[in-house]
Amino acid sequence: MVLLGTPEELESAEKALPPTLISACFKRPFDIKSLVDEMDALVQVNEENAHRKNILLVDDDSTFLKTIKGWLSTKYRVTIVTSGAQAMMYIADNKPDLILLDYEMPVISGPQVLEMIRSETQTDSIPVIFLTGKGDRESVLKVLELKPDGYFLKSTEKAALLKSLEEFFEKRKYAQLHEAKK
After folding, report:
1. Domains in the chain, ordered, with CATH?
2. 66-111, pLDDT tens digit by residue?
C-alpha cells in the first residue's frame, strides 16, 4: 500500500494500519518525478517477487527453518510451517512450486504428509523433496517408495542446496515445455 497525504493524514493512517502493509509514504506537496520513480521501483520489486518460485518449508525445528529460509529467501519466496498439519492446511489454499519436507516430525511424519499430498488430486502434482537428517538406508528406502522428487540431507551446504534447487527447477521447466509441445 502506498500512502499519499498531509503529514497529519499520514500519521493517522500509519497508526491505523500495520506497518507491513505500507510500502511507501509521500507527503504533500510532493515532487511528481520522485513519486513516479519510487512507484516504478516498487512495481518492479513486486513483479520480481511475483515471478519467484514459492517454496513451502516444513520442519519442526524453528532454528533450522530460520536458517534455511535465510538461505533461500534471496532467490525464492519461502513460507515456513512447523508441522505436517500446518503444511496440509497451507496447501489447501495455496499451491507452492515445491515443498521441502522434514522426515521426522511429531504427530504427522514427513512420509505421512507426502502420502496425504499424493492421495489428493488437487495436490498430487506438487513436487516434494525431503530435507532431513534421516540418512540411514531403511529411512531412505521407505521414503523412496513414496516417489518424492528428491532427498537432501540437512547437512547439505548452502551452495550445494541452492544449486540443487536451481537444477531441480530448470529440469522441471524443461519437462513442462517438452510436455506442452506434445
Report:
1. 2-50 (no CATH), 52-181 (3.40.50.2300)
2. 999 999 998 999 999 999 999 999 999 999 999 999 988 988 999 9
